[in-house]
Design brief:
The chain has 372 residues and is α/β, with parallel strands linked by helices. Helices cover 40% and strands 15% of the residues. It has 2 domains: 235 residues, Type I PLP-dependent aspartate aminotransferase-like (Major domain) (Aspartate Aminotransferase, domain 2, 3-Layer(aba) Sandwich), CATH 3.40.640; 122 residues, Alpha-Beta Complex (Aspartate Aminotransferase, domain 1).
Length: 372
């Protein structure tokens, strides 16, 4: 099996699975309990917060765990949603931001322009800021194309206008892969999700700068175990996610992933006709390569590759049944947009895997174009 859908989810590290199983079996007390057994569970959450805080350069008290990035994003969007407030975002956000904002009760939601590579129009951002804007939410690494936004420059523009505007970034495809130093980025709130860096599903979190915490409201009410996310803490998964982040960082894999990306990019271009590489070569995550093939239905190609035990994605795994909003906003030609495939990498992928993929891909595209 060749798995090239790591932007959708990653394979858990074996060591992380074993550690989570150990916690499930031996440290199962409720972390909110005041007895010593419960405090052992709570200590694992504290250790997890320490790992995340060290990586993103914040205080442990500024880390808050949720059920995942979708919950995190919805918490942020709904915290500032009133008929008197405005929000600014982009048209190429993940659905958990885009849909949350389009269904929220804002006075107005402004969608920033972007160029054909997916980079935000900073002049449009400057023009859109006014006294009613309370939230600016920008995806850090685009989940379909890998484009990395210049968050530092965005922060400067926003904060020079009004320090009290909340700048939120969705760092789901960034944490564990590129620098997420919140101080250098200049962000107030940041979302992340454990299963994107070889941790378990169902756990994610928010960094919330301490002076913005009073402005953040939960979407579920109850025990408020993580202040902004009610419900019994899944401390085995929280601890496992932190260990997974630590392991991925220890691998120092970015150079290897970059070589994988370059190898696939170059050989697809050399081997297959009528190809449009959507992911730019600059300011783009090495972990994602979005490629469009002319006169191809991506669903057909995905299933052809699946028949050969190669697993990829036709765009975002969170956008089934929709027109591709992201690629449409990049101005991708209709002849190509239907044939867009997202390849996404991890350290479990080898160069041999990519060579096999290219060979199967070439045969599949030739066959599909002949038949259809």
């Amino acid at each position: 099996m060749i798995y090239l859908d790591n932007a959708a989810t990653t394979k858990m590290y074996r060591e992380v699975i074993e550690k989570e199983m150990d916690v499930l079996e031996n440290y199962y007390a409720n972390s909110s309990a005041i007895h010593s057994f419960g405090m052992e569970s709570e200590n694992l959450i504290k250790k997890a917060k320490n790992i995340f805080a060290r990586e993103i350069n914040c205080k442990e008290s500024e880390i808050h765990f949720t059920k995942g990035a979708t919950e995190s994003n919805n918490i942020v969007v709904n915290s500032f949603s009133t008929s008197e407030n405005k929000a600014i975002t982009t048209s190429i956000e993940h659905p958990s931001i885009y849909d949350a904002l389009t269904n929220a009760n804002y006075k107005d939601v402004i969608f920033l322009k972007n160029d054909n590579e997916g980079f935000v129009d900073l002049n449009h951002l400057r023009e859109s800021l006014d006294e009613d804007v309370r939230l600016v939410s920008i995806i850090y690494v685009n989940n379909e194309t890998g484009v990395i936004q210049n968050i530092g420059e965005i922060s400067k523009i926003v904060k020079d206008f009004n320090m009290n505007i909340c700048l939120h970034i969705d760092a789901t495809q960034a944490l564990g892969k590129i620098s997420c130093d919140v101080d250098k980025l200049g962000v107030d709130v940041m979302s992340f999700s454990g299963h994107k860096f070889h941790g378990p599903k169902g756990v994610g979190g928010l960094y919330i700068r301490s002076d913005f915490l009073p402005k953040i409201k939960p979407v579920l009410y109850g025990g408020r175990q993580q202040i902004i996310s009610s419900g019994t803490d899944n401390h085995p998964a929280i601890y496992a996610a932190a260990l997974a982040l630590e392991m991925q960082l220890d691998e120092k894999e970015y150079e290897y992933i970059s070589k994988l990306n370059k190898h696939l990019r170059e050989n697809i271009s050399k081997t297959i006709d009528d190809v449009y590489i959507i992911s730019p070569t600059h300011n783009s995550s090495a972990y994602i390569l979005d490629v469009a093939f002319k006169n191809i239905k991506s669903e057909v190609l995905v299933h052809y590759l699946e028949d050969n035990e190669i697993y990829v994605s036709s765009g975002s795994a969170c956008s089934h049944g929709e027109d591709n909003r992201v690629l449409t906003n990049l101005g991708v030609d209709k002849d190509y947009i239907d044939g867009a495939i997202r390849f996404s990498f991890s350290s479990f992928v080898s160069f041999d895997d990519l060579d096999k993929t290219i060979a199967v891909l070439k045969d599949g595209i030739e066959m599909i174009r002949e038949v259809f």
